[in-house]
Design a protein that fits this description.
- With 645 residues, the chain is of the alpha+beta class.
- It has eleven helices and 33 strands.
- The strands form eight sheets. An eight-stranded mixed beta sheet has the order 26-27-29-28-30-31-32-33, with helices on both faces. Strands 21, 22, 23, 24 and 25 form a five-stranded antiparallel beta sheet that branches. Strands 3-4-5-6 form a four-stranded antiparallel beta sheet, with no helix packed on it.
- It is globular and about 75 Å long.
Length: 645
């Protein structure tokens, strides 16, 4: 992950060349601290088309879909082990590497990223049981948290469990845990390499002894001690014989209900908490003293509600910033009034709260915050807006920027989304965002386009299968909103999308090349007519539909990025500067990426008006992640070309 973020950063500094030299209306942005001003045109802004490789085109390769013949001249590139394919990739890197290294802002951005990403030892969550406090801490460079134990909330204590010791690569971690009432037995579920399959272990807190007793092949993450007699690995809480459960039978409307275990007949089950409104998605619930704390996702942010654990009546909403609260960070206990939880925001990696439930006001106190070097989050703001998509659907978008920003249309803006596979665009922290908004006074915008799960399964389905175009429309409408509201202009607008969001940026590149100044196509699925022929692509059929299906072929063919490249004819219109990002550890993305970049460059050679470059960048081998030694390509590239049009 570190290596990928370094790559993403390289765009930022190269794009700054063009912003600095060619800002519209005479505006002059502030470069990164210590950066050298550039006089005259940026040398990195242009790659002659005759410098692009000339890979072989086999025009004889074609397939028939629903009586339509479609050529695939670069089919041979799907063989990644072919010497010809390797040579083509080497030729592409020979172009992109020196091109990216020309940025005078490269060292500045790389140094700033390292600074922002270098956290001192931090507290991510804290729990109390018996006389002991258990805290999860991380130096910022560790892949897994280290668990400490102490007898005071203010004392760091000693290391109890180092999760990094479970595996050499730090990939194995504790999925869930529970502590006996006396605080002496720590039970935890450990991932064993199989999805949704865990093993249960027990460790004595004072002796440090790991018991020989264990359980394997557990498929739930819910773990709860009952008195000191044993462990249930499913229940929220209980009132005597009445046990409280959370049901996900309906994923859009989880239900909290209670069961009298002396009369477990489903007909006798009763709702503990009344159903929420249509926009709220219940994420988790946990006991705290005499209460039940429920966490909902409401308009793509966490909302914490306190309910009476006996009656289910809602008492109060806890006031927190726009944030995401992971249920794994929450600790509450029926015996103690103290509860703790951590929240992640756009501007902070983690804020740990303490709530005293013995007080009627339930006042929240910040007991720890992860600090980012030379970054004061109070100087920035997070705004949530709602804009209309093409079909009138209201879409939420977060916009992050420095307070006092002038909406004059001349601000560098980074527009990012996921919009696929039911992923949620909840608030989260990334060092790259800090570089954008602090070093370059830029704007970071994140819309929750359909195809994600921001409003439940209906929202996901609203951007899937025959409705996939809605994802692109939502993303394009976000760009139009930012321009119309004077946050930015098309020349200063850069776009990226993750989680196969490369499909979104690839499709939007073809559909609205006038709307963006720079585009990154990140690990995208670009050949929508052959994606299901690749091993991992078969899992995507449920989201996109099969190309062989007469119903879906015309839909896929209409938006497939590889098959809809149309550089404008004549004049000064052209495609924005585009980078295709692939990962060699992912055998799917290079197959799509190589064919896509080859086609883009082939079309560029036929259009003299296409001056903005098309390049490909390969992620380094993350198994040998060397962090600072890897080149920071992506942001450099963006900042060089966002004003190229």
């Amino acid at each position: 992950m570190v290596a990928k973020l370094f790559l993403v950063l390289e765009i930022l500094a190269v794009l700054l060349i063009e912003i600095y030299c060619n800002c519209p209306n005479g505006a002059t942005p502030t470069p990164a601290p210590g950066a050298t001003p550039v006089n005259g045109p940026a040398s990195a802004a242009f790659i002659p088309v005759d410098k692009y490789p000339n890979p072989r085109r086999d025009e004889s390769v074609e397939d028939a879909y629903a009586c339509t013949k479609v050529k695939d001249p670069y089919r041979w590139m799907e063989n990644l082990d072919c010497p010809e394919t390797k040579k083509f990739l080497e030729d592409e890197i020979a172009i992109s590497k020196p091109y990216l290294e020309k940025s005078p802002f490269r060292a500045e951005v790389q140094a700033r990223y390292k600074e922002v990403d270098d956290y001192s030892i931090t507290l991510s969550r804290i729990f109390q049981q018996g006389k002991y406090f258990f805290s999860f801490r991380n130096t910022g460079t560790q892949k897994q948290d280290v668990i400490y134990v102490s007898e005071s909330v203010k004392d760091e204590g000693k290391i109890f469990i180092d999760q990094n010791s479970f595996s050499k690569d730090g990939s194995v971690s504790i999925g869930s845990f529970s502590i006996s009432e006396d605080g002496l037995i720590f039970a935890y579920l450990l991932m064993n390499g199989t999805p949704d399959c865990y093993s249960m272990h027990f460790k004595h807190v004072e002796k440090g002894e790991i018991y020989k007793d264990k359980m394997d092949n557990i498929s739930t993450l819910n773990l709860q001690f009952v008195k000191d007699k044993g462990v249930f690995y499913t229940f929220i809480a209980n009132n005597g014989n009445e046990f409280i459960f959370i049901s996900d039978k309906d994923p859009d409307k989880k239900r909290i209900f209670s069961v009298d275990i002396t009369n477990p007949d489903p007909k006798s089950w009763k709702d503990t908490v009344p159903g929420a409104n249509d926009k709220d998605i219940l994420e988790w619930a946990a006991p705290a003293y005499n209460y039940l704390v429920l966490c909902y996702t409401r308009d793509v942010k966490s909302v914490l509600q306190v309910h009476d654990i006996m009656t289910g009546k809602m008492i109060k909403t806890l006031e927190i910033d726009i944030a995401t609260v992971d249920g794994s960070t929450f600790f509450g206990d029926r015996k103690f009034p103290n509860a703790f939880f951590s929240a992640e925001t756009f501007l902070s990696p983690g804020i740990t709260y303490h709530c005293d439930f013995s007080k009627p006001s339930f006042d929240l106190e910040i007991i720890n915050e992860i600090k980012v070097k030379n970054f004061d989050r109070e100087k920035f703001t997070v705004e949530q807006v709602f804009y209309k998509s093409k079909d009138g659907t209201s879409v939420p978008m977060y916009i992050v920027y420095k307070k006092g920003l002038k909406k004059d249309g001349n601000n560098f803006t980074f527009l990012y989304t996921l919009g696929r596979y039911g992923a949620t665009m909840a608030p989260y922290f990334r060092p790259t965002r800090v570089v954008v908004i602090s070093n370059f006074d830029g704007i970071y915008a994140m819309p929750s386009v359909r195809g994600g799960n921001d409003y439940g399964e209906k929202w996901h389905q609203g951007g899937s299968l025959e409705k996939t175009q809605n994802s692109f429309d939502d993303f394009e409408a976000a760009a139009e909103y930012l321009i119309a509201e004077k946050y930015t202009n098309s020349k200063l607008l850069a776009i990226d999308a993750g989680g196969n969001g490369g499909l979104i940026t690839g499709a939007c590149l073809n559909q609205r090349p006038d709307l963006f100044g720079a585009v990154i196509c990140d690990l995208g699925t670009f050949d929508m007519l052959r994606y299901d022929q690749f091993p991992d692509g078969k899992d995507l059929v449920a989201d996109y539909g099969a190309p062989s299906d007469p119903k879906f072929f015309p839909i896929l063919y209409k938006y497939s990025p590889l098959h809809n490249i149309k550089i404008p004819e004549g004049g000064d219109k052209q495609y924005p500067a585009t980078m295709v990002l692939t990962d060699p550890s992912d055998k799917e993305s290079p197959k799509h990426g190589l064919k896509f970049i080859a086609t883009l460059q082939y079309e560029a050679k036929k259009h003299t008006n296409q001056k903005n470059p098309f390049i490909i960048q390969v992620l380094p081998d993350t198994s040998q992640d060397n962090g600072a030694a890897s080149t920071t390509n992506v942001y450099f590239y963006y900042l060089s070309h966002v004003n190229q049009m």
